[in-house]
Amino acid sequence: xxxxxxxxxxxxxxxxxxxxxxxxxxxxxxxxxxxxxxxxxxxxxxxxxxxxxxxx
Length: 56
Prior knowledge:
alpha+beta, two-stranded antiparallel sheet, 1 helix, 2 strands
């Protein structure tokens, strides 16, 4: 299932909900500080990028 399929499932599930915890599209305007590290949970050593919201 892709993003569109997931969005359709959420739309159906939330049809009767009057209030949500959605913070709004303004979160795109916040400042974020990325940090990168290698996961050591397995032999793949995947790069993880963690985005932390800057405190302003």
